[in-house]
Amino acid sequence: MNCKFVEIEPHRKLSYTWAAGGDLGLDTVVTFTLTPTETGTHLSLVQSGFKPDQKRESGGARYGWKMMGEKLVELLARIS
Q: Average pLDDT in the 7-25 region?
């Protein structure tokens, strides 16, 4: 994977490219956004840039991010 930060807003937003050549041919952008709420913070994650013929890759990314999100929830529950 080749990654490059494209946007950094401290305590609010982080975006970076997620590019993989070869058979994958991925050239996407991952963006994490934090938004304060009355009870804490809302985390939004968007990975954009998948081509219409990259349904398998998009599904794999969705599965991976879901799995990591669940692990983050477990971790935060243990430390709070």
A: 89
| Confidence (pTM) | 0.86
The encoded tokens of residue 73 equal: 């929830």
Q: Sheet containing 5-9: give its strands across.
A: 5-9, 13-20, 26-37, 40-48
* Alpha helix (H) residue ranges in 1-80: 55-79
Q: In 10 A of CB 21, how many CB atoms?
A: 10
Q: Looking at this protein, which amino acid is placed at residue 25?
A: G
Whether 47 contacts 61, CB under 8 Å: yes
Longest Cα–Cα distance of the chain, Å, equals: 45
Structural domains in the chain, CATH included, are: 5-79 (3.30.530.20)
